């Protein structure tokens, strides 16, 4: 791969994919709808000559077609708000796949784990799809769209991430906790503090995503992007206190608390149905990746949290 385009390049996952591609000497087109955010991305990379950007609308496939140019692989990192998932996710999928089909391109779709529902078996790519939530069912329909037989020339694959964190993270469950602690404030933790959960450090995820994308035989399949083991909220907070010096209270938000807040906040209202993940967890198996790609990048939680928190603190000052 010598050239690539990243859709949703200014988002949390899009930014780390852009960085990883540039680190490998790959020419990158950053695609998005906000000129100011794209300019900030250019500045972040010191106007790297291998990085350019194109303005466009992810829901208008023709703007994607016009932006792709000679890019060999499309990385689909754009997403929709929880509140708009039912209305817009299918439209997003149709748009990006239509563009990939017209251009006969490889396309890497970044997605999550809602399609699985409760964990009932080893968390590999063959885990049964039994979503019990609205978002899970929407995501399963999305997967079916991506791998639909109606696409004859596009070559898609899906990478699935658990919850994540990192300096570019914007909407993860862990974000309000880290931002509050970095700002030396009382903060919240979504879910209970005792359940060991899986989180992937976004720069590690980007390495795995690009490694998968570079393999010719990866396409047409689902791929897991596992984290570095499991960690509880209590352990995260302990590490964060050591890094930030913040000793203020961290308030765990239970399902009932989220439900109450949701009466006044549409985003929090949408979180209620997927709170099962904060209680039960879901652990992704990386066996397929290790067998066919190689060793899994595994930044320690301490190193990843330190990098993330120091970035947040430096940008608060």
Automatic annotation (TrEMBL):
Superkingdom: Bacteria
UniProt GO molecular function: aldehyde dehydrogenase (NAD+) activity
NAD-dependent epimerase/dehydratase domain sequence ranges: 5-225
Any one GO cellular component localisation term in the record: cytoplasm
Name of the protein in its database record: Nucleoside-diphosphate-sugar epimerase
Source organism phylogeny: Bacteria, Bacillati, Bacillota, Bacilli, Bacillales
Signal peptide: none
């Amino acid at each position: 791969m010598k050239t690539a385009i990243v859709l949703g390049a200014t988002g949390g996952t899009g930014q780390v994919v852009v960085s990883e591609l540039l680190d490998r000497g790959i020419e990158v087109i950053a695609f998005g709808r906000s000129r100011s955010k794209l300019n900030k991305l250019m500045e972040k990379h010191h106007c790297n000559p291998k990085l350019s950007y194109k303005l466009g609308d992810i829901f208008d496939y023709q703007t994607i077609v016009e932006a792709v140019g000679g890019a060999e692989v499309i990385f689909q990192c754009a997403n929709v708000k929880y509140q708009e998932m039912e209305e817009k996710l299918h439209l997003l999928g149709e748009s990006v796949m239509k563009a990939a089909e017209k251009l006969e391109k490889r396309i890497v779709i970044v997605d999550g784990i809602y399609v699985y529902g409760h964990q009932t078996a080893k968390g590999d790519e063959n885990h049964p799809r039994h979503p019990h939530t609205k978002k899970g069912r929407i995501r399963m329909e999305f997967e079916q769209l991506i791998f639909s037989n109606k696409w004859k020339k596009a070559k898609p694959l899906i990478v699935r991430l658990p919850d994540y964190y990192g300096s570019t993270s914007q909407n993860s469950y862990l974000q309000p906790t880290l931002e509050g602690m970095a700002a030396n404030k009382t903060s919240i933790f979504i879910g209970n503090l005792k359940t060991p959960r899986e989180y992937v450090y976004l720069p590690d995820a980007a390495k795995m995503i690009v490694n998968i994308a570079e393999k010719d035989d990866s396409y047409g399949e689902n791929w897991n992007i596992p984290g570095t083991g499991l960690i509880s909220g209590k352990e995260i907070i302990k590490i964060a206190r050591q890094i930030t010096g913040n000793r203020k209270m961290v308030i765990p938000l239970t399902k009932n608390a989220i439900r109450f807040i949701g009466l006044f906040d549409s985003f929090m209202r949408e979180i209620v149905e997927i709170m099962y993940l904060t209680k039960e967890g879901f652990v992704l198996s990386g066996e397929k990746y290790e067998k066919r790609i190689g060793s899994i990048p595994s930044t320690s939680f301490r190193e990843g949290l330190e990098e993330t928190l120091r970035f947040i603190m430096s940008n608060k000052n």
